[in-house]
Amino acid sequence: CIFKSFSFLGGFFVTVHVSDSSSCLHGMRCGDGNCVWDSEWCDGVKNCPAGQDEANCVRVRGSNFLLEVYWTETKEWRQVCSEGWSDQQGKASCHDIGYTREKICICNTNCISACIVVTVQCTDCGNRENSSEASGSQLASVGSWPWQVSLHVAGSHRCGGAIISPRWLITAAHCVSRTSSPADWAVYVGIVDPLGPVFNPAHAVSEIITHEGYNSQTQQNDVALMKLSDPLNTKASSKIRPVCLPNAGLNMTDPGKSWVTYYGPTANRGENSSSLYLKEAPVSLIPSAECNSSEAYSGRISQEMLCATKIEAGATMCNPDSGGPLVSHMDGLWWLMGEGVWGEHCNGQNKPGVYTSIRHHLDWIYYQMQVKMTC
């Protein structure tokens, strides 16, 4: 443990410390391409023009949201002791990460290794009330996946997405790359059937941020954020809630059963094929090596992608929808592990579904929330 009496903690950022030393022999690269020494990161002095060297020095870790500080001298993360800690400091830290002040901020203390340490949770995320979790693919019920959104263009569903805070949604970059004007989009929350947009309000989008490294050929960095013009009222209904972003150090060795949700047609409702319903299906995450085998995608899966396959034999999990969430249930909460990118399991080849890894892009997500935050 360390005490939180460091100068750079006055307005710290709660995010993931990520360095890119590909062009720096003995240091790390700033956003403008210049290099600074390793010892200059997280030392309380801004050496990068935009302050990147001081922006990623604090993070939230694990399923219990432990607050940690990066210690430059030993190049390690250390927990923050709670002596002198206040709820106001917790709210300030959530504000710095990109969560606006009207959001829930929960600050607690836990006794670990003889040190009372700080835990910070900036949103009431990852909870759901209606959770039947049947064994196979089926239609989802209202409120069963409260973070699921339907993204519409010109009155029609274009892609799925997930609520990560009352202001922010996450989806696939390929969904928005050709329709990048926020005015063209409408967001619907809490809907599961074709009548949902009729009886639920449309939410306007104020900004769309596509990952600058998105490659439409390889599908790398296929992630985008949408900022809503007005925050969702997540306290008014259990049908609208954010999903948790996967904190650093989250135990992924045994994530248990994961689920994908997506909008698609159903044949047993007597509806036109264009009528879309929210569907849910249990899946199992599979190793990248297996997904990259010659029987699957032959090396096309990068380290920033996840692969998932249906659990039960004979299940139909043809998912033509993009941007939909892949979530896992761990330690009592639901975590957003991926969002739908592509897959060849709809063309009869029975190959795994491919998803962008949210954990891989966590630093990018938090950075965008910080710089685009509305006070």
From TrEMBL:
Residues 1-21 form the signal peptide. Pfam families: SRCR_2, Trypsin. Disulfide bonds join C30-C48, C42-C57. One of its GO terms (molecular function) is serine-type endopeptidase activity. It comes from Cyprinodon variegatus. It comes from the Eukaryota. SMART domains: LDLa, Tryp_SPc. This is Transmembrane serine protease 2. Residues 134-370 form the Peptidase S1 domain. The lineage of its organism: Eukaryota, Metazoa, Chordata, Craniata, Vertebrata. Keywords: Disulfide bond, Glycoprotein, Hydrolase, Protease, Serine protease, Signal. The keyword Zinc does not apply. GO terms for cellular component: membrane. Residues 67-98 form the SRCR domain. GO terms for biological process: proteolysis.
